[in-house]
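thought: fold this chain, then report.
action: predict
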Amino acid sequence: MFFGVTHVDVPVCDLARSEEFWGKLIGLQKIKHGEGFIDLDSGSVILRLIHVNQITRPVTLRVSVPDVKVAFDKLIGSGGRALYEIQRTPALELEAHVADPDGNSVVVWRELNEDEYGFVPELPKQGEWHSDAEELFNELLKYVPALFRAMARRKVTKIIEEVAGYDHSPVTRQHVIRGYILASAKIKRDRLIEPLKMCGIDPENYKEEFDA
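observation:
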């Protein structure tokens, strides 16, 4: 019955001014225009700027950006009005709110990376772990780039628990070390040597895992 959302209508009082703000400033491409409207391609849905004499129902649009401060400062410096300064949300996002010249809200935002959380996420454990094993694994995860850490946490936790399962044992430090090595493709295991050493572990003691 429905084919999906195609447009978001944005009421504006001055089409030329709004095209400047949404098109040239934010970087949306004009793809169509007609009597009283301009369509801008956002990459997912089309923003249709619709000319009205008075704004009675302003809209809110969220715009993903790589740097919230840079985007916020650019919008303010180009005629936007600050509604909310840069803030961290409970959803682990960084965002700021700006009003366009017609009072529509623009939320510039990005997700926080794990280095910015201020806490260590829980491991997706299914079995029993010794506390020192969990501490070691969280320490080793710090050497994984934040962008890939969540994926690594899921993948390596599963393999560590599989290794412990062969011994019918709760997860120990030895299981963590072995699973950490085995979870990596053999061709890339040399990258694990330095993190292991930084955690006080001699990689020479795990040649079998490195060669597996």
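thought: worth noting. The chain has a mean pLDDT of 94.
final: tokens above.
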